[in-house]
Amino acid sequence: MIPFVRIDPDFSKQQLILFLREWYMHPNGALPAYEFNFSDVNPPVHAWACWRVYEMTGCQDKDFLLSAFVKLLLNFTWWVNRKDAEGNNIFSGGFLGLDNISVFDRSKVHNLEQADGTAWMAFYCSMMLKIALELALSIPAMEDIASKFFEHFVAVVDAMNSVGGTGLWDEEDGFYYDQIKYDTHKVPLKVRSMVGLIPICAVLVLDSDKINQLSGFKKRMAWFMQNRKDLSRHISYLRPDDNKQHKLLLAVPSDVRLRKVLRYMLDENEFLSKYGLRSLSKAYEENPYNYFHTEEGKTYSVKYCPGESDTLMFGGNSNWRGPIWFPIMHLVIQSLRDYYTFYGDEFLIEFPTGSGKSINLLQVADEISHRAISIFLPDSKGIRPYHCNSIFSEEHWKDLVLFYEHFHGETGRGLGAEHQTGWTALVAELIQLSILKKDCLLYTSDAADEEDS
Fold it and tell me: Residues with Cβ < 8 Å from 223, sequence gap 6 or more?
């Protein structure tokens, strides 16, 4: 609904609310996954979608936001009760939309602690906190719920980074991994994939303007930070600037760990492709990852496959072992922009890794966005990378834009379903933001020229 909101905002809101109605949501709070298996589990992004639609329509429709929030509370509770088996804020969830990304079908492994599942719940907390704070400006009772999500977010972040020593973080590699938990020990599945990038999407910046308007929330947050230093250490604080404002950063990775993850993500020999972000590191092209399952006496393997899948897992018509997928890439781009609002120009990172050229996180977001958009742009011969066929440069075909399910990690060629507008249409949002930024730069440049004259 994010791209569609620019065409018909009312329809977008209706569709998001429809999924939360009693006709679709289970009485226990579960949301249906897809038409052929309602009971499967997809990433909890509904709160994010509701917030973005609210935000993109001018932050005026509080009734829509409240209606969605009340039902999302049921879904959030379902996640906590069903997917946190031991009550320690480490979550599972199964395949979570990433099909064959792991060495085996994660839906069939019951002792798996998932880096993406746990990060998704931190992400869910951050979105529910953002919505609660917005509603609390006109409904004071929401301040209590906002405090709950604030504390829950920090608890999940603490678990992900600290449970058992380092949580789901691997200090040696500088990356987040799934872990198989046995009676006496845990075994990390050291596959550098989107599973380990999703944690950077769980980020929220709180500024003093909003916090100061919510006295109850501000008081409870101050108490929490003073009395729960074991948890509040995960909150980054930015000192007041010249405008006497301060900001708080809620995020899964610290600045040090964020740099380590980005080092892989921005490496053209790992995740960074000419056309965006690969779903699996290219490092496994020549050196596949192998895992020996002692109980089964069987070796599982993951190899970088930028195009069609080399496994029949989930039917073989979907591949998360190399291709570029827009939904998570879009969230990563948005998250980098959020980090920039906190760190500003003080946080510089090499782009690409090893190039010797450092830029800020907003520029990194723009660079990845431009690479993703280029999939749809015609070259000098009129051929768009996703078509890879000269017929589409002909007069009657050249403007036939197809929204493929995913894209080849090296060539940008379209793969899978040809009409996957549900998420690939997010490229329209990237294009819109790119146009708005160019217009802003032109306006600023024109204004500067007028001043000089």
Answer: none
CB atoms near residue 239 (< 10 Å): 6
Judge residue 179's burial from the number of C-beta atoms within 10 Å of its C-beta, 0-12 exposed, 13-18 middle, 19 or more buried: buried
Q: What are the beta bridge partners of residue 104?
A: none
Q: Which of 22, 77, 27 is nearest to 47 (CA)?
A: 77
Distance CA 391, CA 434 (A): 29
Q: Which residues contact 56 (CB under 8 A, 6 or more apart)?
A: 2, 5, 6, 9
DSSP string of 72-120, one letter each residue: HHHHHHHHHHHH-TTSSS----TTTT-TT-SSS-GGG-TTEEPHHHHHH
pLDDT score, position 185: 86
The continuous run of DSSP H or E covering 223 comes out as helix 215-227
Please state, in angstroms and as integers, the Cα–Cα distance from residue 88 to each residue in 32, 84, 92, 260, 434, following that order: 26, 7, 12, 26, 41
Task: Out of 50-64, 218-232, 326-340, 389-403, pick the least confident.
Answer: 389-403
Per the DSSP assignment, residues forming a β-bridge with 189 are: 178
Which whole-number Å values give the CA distances from 419 to 4, 231, 406, 423, in the listed order? 15, 45, 11, 10
Under DSSP, is residue 257 helix (H, G, I), strand (E, B) or coil?
helix
Residue 232 three-state SS: helix
Which pLDDT score is estimated for 316?
64
Cα separation, 264 vs 279, in Å, equals 12
Q: What is the mean pLDDT of residues 242-253?
A: 81
In 3D space, the residue among 357, 377, 381 whose CA is nearest the CA of residue 369 turns out to be 377
Query: Of 362 and 392, which is predicted with more confidence?
Result: 362
Residue 278 to residue 271: CA distance in whole angstroms: 5
Q: Which two tokens stand for residue 285?
A: 């092209």
C-alpha distances (whole Å) from 360 to each of 75, 265, 272, 344, 438 are: 36, 15, 16, 7, 18
pLDDT in tens, 190-219: 999 999 999 999 999 998 889 999 999 999
Q: What's the distance, Cα to Cα, between the start and end of the chain in Å?
A: 45
Name the pTM for this structure: 0.93
Q: What angle do CA 425, 322, 106 make, to 5 degrees?
A: 95
Q: How many helices (H) and strands (E) does the chain have?
A: 14, 16
For residue 129, what is the enclosing H or E element? helix 115-136
